[in-house]
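Lab notebook: predicted structure, single chain.

Context: the supervisor wants predicted structures on file for every construct in the current expression panel, including those that have not yet been purified. This is the next one on the list. No modifications to the sequence; it matches the entry in the shared construct table.
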Amino acid sequence: MPKRTDIESILIIGSGPIVIGQACEFDYSGTQACRVLKEEGYRVILANSNPATIMTDPSFADATYVEPLDLQILEKIIENERPDAVLPTLGGQTGLNLAMELQQAGVLERFGCELIGADAEAIETAEDREKFKVAMTEIGLESARSAIAHTMNEAQVAIEEVGLPVIIRPAYILGGRGTGIAETMEEYERMAAYGLDASPISEILIEESIKGWKEYELEVMRDCADNCVIICSIENLDPMGVHTGDSITVAPAQTLTDVEYQKMRDGSFACIRRVGVETGGSNVQWAVDPRTGRQIVIEMNPRVSRSSALASKATGFPIAKIAAKLAIGYTLDEIPNDITEKTPASFEPSIDYVVTKIPRWAFEKFPGTSGVLGTSMQSVGEVMAIGRTFPESMQKALRSLEQGRHGLNADPGEAVLDDIVTEELMKMAAIGTPDRPFQLEALLRRGVSVDEIFAATAVDPWFLDQMSIITEERAHLETLSLDSITPRGFKRAKQLGFSDPQLAYLWNATEAEVRAARLAAGVRTTFKTVDTCAAEFEATTPYHYSTYEDTDEVRDGDRKKVIILGSGPNRIGQGIEFDYCCVHASFSLRDAGYETIMVNCNPETVSTDYDTSDRLYFEPLTYEDVMDIIEREQPEGVIVSLGGQTPLKLADRLPEALVLGTSPASIDLAEDREQWNAMCARLEIPQPAGGTAVDIDQALKITAKIGYPALVRPSYVLGGRAMEIVYDDDHLRRAMAELAGFGSLGKEGGLSVERPVLVDRFLEDATEVDVDALRDHTGDSVIGAVMEHVEEAGVHSGDSACSIPPTSLSAETIAVIEDYTFKIAEALDVKGLVNVQYAVKGNQVFLIEANPRASRTVPFVAKTTGVPLAKVASRIMVGATLDGLRAEGLMCERVDGDHVAIKEAVLPFNRFPEADAVLGPEMRSTGEVMGIDLTPGLAFVKSQLAAGTRLPEDGMVFLSLADRDKASGVEAARLLAEMGFTICATSGTAASVREAGVEVVVEVAKLGDVDGVNAVDLINAGEVKLVVNSPRGRGPRADGDHIRSAAGRASVPLLTTGAAALAAAKGMQDWKAHKLAVRSLQEYHQGVSLSALEPSDGGASD
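Prediction complete. Output recorded below exactly as produced.
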């Protein structure tokens, strides 16, 4: 049937910031939806708080609201825009939950707005655990034995019915938050309470534990004519008990018989029909008992999910794009398949290769966490690899993770397992951890049988047998050498996924020697096509993966080629901001007539959409894999400076003439401390005193000269990896020991003369400033933006809120900062983007560091100023000038308006309750949000709301401040008291607050004191509405740590710096004084003046 003509405008609700459980797969799905709905002629309105995504670029929707994803704000957007329909199924759990809130609050009915894709009843049936179970029972599908509870009393009754062990699943949550397995009553009571707290409707499902069963997912699509198709089947390597987002998964499913698969397929169709998802994609999860084959349905997501992104990239079938078309009335048989152009979307994909997805975790960022995988998702990103066999795709995926591993062992990283006795290793492998694949291979190499390992770990024998093929091939390769290997032997090793560095390790050779010998033997990569149909029809879309066969399927174009190296898996410190830059480069260069070639291995991103670039290679970002593509494509150049540290690490290994933009020599100059210091001295730009060290003796010599506190950090890292502020010699010794030997940084390269540690004097109480700038090859430069950080220096720039324009810097200071930036760009001969960080103390500006590459602030700057920095930078890299781009209209002037934008970090402490929720020099945020309005205060409050911190309107505020935070914290207390808040504080802070003439209602006792009330008790009793607690350096687990933990458990807003408290207090004042207003980025880019502010008659919440 044709598309709907009774609706003209559609609101898409985005998924907000990148958080654990909900990453950039929704950036990809939302971007696809915006594009297709605009092409179909609808007015598209987008609400999303995330500035880092391609989706919130003003070109993708007609009205783009970068506003908090909050009921009150969305109501205001709907009131402004009056959309005919809301599409909630492409914004993850956030989008679904908000759609339900809008429905329940009567907002949709009041403004005549309908839900499309899935209606409220379907969402409720899928998300409400009890309703879903009843629905499945009605259609004859078996669920696990279970009961529902809304209170702890009901939970006690439920456990008597179900019996231990159980799994607890909260309703309406994402990434398994609050989910857990309880095997004892003590565990059950603790986890039931946590689950009730995690569920927005205080509902948990208590279900018989099926830990150890096999887990599968089927990606289903349905249209309004009730046509249903399976897009992809996915099987988890890890057994039930590990969240599917934390499990290694394989597509297509490998261990089901055809009868079992058909039963699961029929059950999935019955499920989507009964739940009532009228159109679009859904994900149905199944568990299978390995002993009996009993199948039970676990859950279904009535929306596009993380697995949809994987299924999409695994098959080439654009699930989100098709889901958007189905939502507006098309049927599957009316939509052509882009890849074949001959088959309709109702034609189920089939694939003739194996896809492996492996998650990436960040446990090293959160000391105190166990690193054990369970039913609550903890990974921050993932990689995907494609191979003709499971061993090939598994080994490619492992080397894609960028964690110092070259495949399934057969590399230096395997040595850590050598000294562990077999019995102990078996116990370790029985517990889900990121190291499980390496432990399984080590056990097989020691001769432990597949059956024994299966009995201990519940990993299916098929996967273990496939791993043993790698083990057996390794044993054979160890009997050979670089001189004795035949071309046929080389090819067999490569077909099983062995990388050149693995072969070099086994033969005690260098990677370069192995590569030269392999190419001399005529063993070269061939590239195959992802075509959705197992080569049954010719594919027109150039989406490729590497393998070692006889024929190559890449078709050459006739334009100049540019390869863009992507940023690999999402991780803390390197997120989708870099994917945004790569995608912008692809769009910009394609428009300029180049053939763009993207290389990346992240299935969640827009860069790995088959239509983002002219050609896509889904490949690991290693030297070997990138060089194979370069040799096949023969490009004009390669862009390495937009994908973060991942491609930058390859810059000096690639042919120098091919590196576009800033030269590898300049990139090295910015990292080489001696050259850098000499350059700064020549330019007369002051820096904090410091030096470089490769061992503790050198580090102690430096601190003897510069004094403490000192900032210690490794070179060539991103996201402040292993950065620490040290206060004395002992502290320095601990930090250097950590850097030298263990921790994941050792895996990533460890210390060496090439990678020394930087030891600098740390400037306390300084304001940190970030600058993004552009420079072309003629020397013409332009400042993108100067950003002032809310938190003082010492908090990693990625974790600190920052403001455009700066709110407290003088015009003279800004002029000095801009002058220094131009000088640095000139001295480094930057061609493209450069990011420079400064610390301002008093009126003096100190240079901290410069990075001649794209930074994580580029999308934020572009959305605030209206200048597409990444697009301009990519054109500069291929030789364009700023003057030429101004004439073209690509390089535009900054928006002339009075708006203030604040970028705020989103932190994952709710996933890691054991970790202390305190900010420092090592980055810990997973994503970011943006607040934009006409005063710094309003923008700050919006940024907090978008990040999940709802600041209170009244009640008691608890203050406990380190001395360095007393001045700003006391000023915050004064403002809060003026607004009617009551103040409680620790004794030292209370004295400072009283000195300023502000009443302290409660002076709390220290924890453990018999007399008086302590802060934790007040928080637990629900009396405290806001906690301001800044840490006092290092030491044993102090009161502050317990207070911050209590605030996290009670979901009380927590601020850990005096500067943030002051910004919040000023924001709360503004929030009360003005009417709530929402404006689209398109409006801001036209220019909005302060005169648009409206005074409130009672507060912004009115």
